Amino acid sequence: METIPLPLQAGLWGLVAGGALLIGAAIGYFAHLPRRVSSSVMALGIGVLISALAFDLMDEAFARGGIAAALTGFVAGAAIYALANEALARSGARNRKNSARVAGTATASLAIAVGSLLDGIPESAAIGISLLDGEGVALVTVFAIFISNVPEGLSSSIGMKSAGKSAAYVFSIWGGIAVACALSAWLGYSVIGVLGPFYIGAATACAAGAIFVMLIDTMIPEAFEEIHGLSGPMAAAGFLLAFAAGHAF
Q1: Whose CA is closest to 128, among 1, 14, 246, 5?
Q2: DSSP character for 10?
Q3: Given 48, 153, 156, 232, which residue has the most CB atoms within 10 angstroms?
């Protein structure tokens, strides 16, 4: 993507990561994937995301803005996500990553979609911000988000289908969210990128804080619920995969 303007690159990478929601939605709507398989993919994504948080986002936040920016942004992101997630949970989106327990009502289906958008905004913004150093996108971060989005799109589309929603409705929703992820990545580069180092570092850490709480609140409990003891080894494999990839490229 060397000849593509960087703001457009940010949007395209955000679309790639958000597009995993569409892939998951297609699998959930048209195929019958065993829950153990989707939970195993989720556990792998947990490990990849933890690696991306520890070695990419927080290190980048500290390098750009210092310890104050990293701490301030992380706390803010964690708090904002936790409050918003709790509000959505009360509307039926608590189990939006779990195909076994997603609610089959119209209200819950809409809450699931909004919850997925809530997950995607900070993740995609982090992708856009990663381009600011001029060394290309953080591929480990893109990979981590892509892997974690597949089971979310899968489980949520199952809930929408059980609520009687048509394929056109389901894929228009997830297509819109994928586009929103692209826009968020573009904004991460184009808007946050013109701010000073402190604010760039804080924004990076804010995304990390939001993703961290998302892991604890939704992904880890729901992966463990289905595959139990296998979730730890799968997450460890994801962590090592991302760690090795991050140091190999």
Answers
A1: 14
A2: H
A3: 156
